[in-house]
Amino acid sequence: MRLLQKRVKESVDIAQSERVVVTRHGRPAAVLIGVEGQDWEDLVFQTSPGFWRMIERRRTQRTTPLAEVRRRLNVRRRRRRK
Question: Tens digits of per-residue pLDDT, 8-18?
């Protein structure tokens, strides 16, 4: 751990392009993953078990085709410009 404390900046810089494994007494204890340039909300959701449980539940539910949604909302499809 002392080595990491002395080399935090270097470790964080390396973690932006590859995973850095932090060891304690020669055994893996943590993984440092760079997140520079990423959105904070995206990171929170990506690491939230509750969010992923919700996604998995939703994927098992019936979906509504876009054409049906448009019909229910009485929305006409726009024509593309050429």
Answer: 899 999 999 99
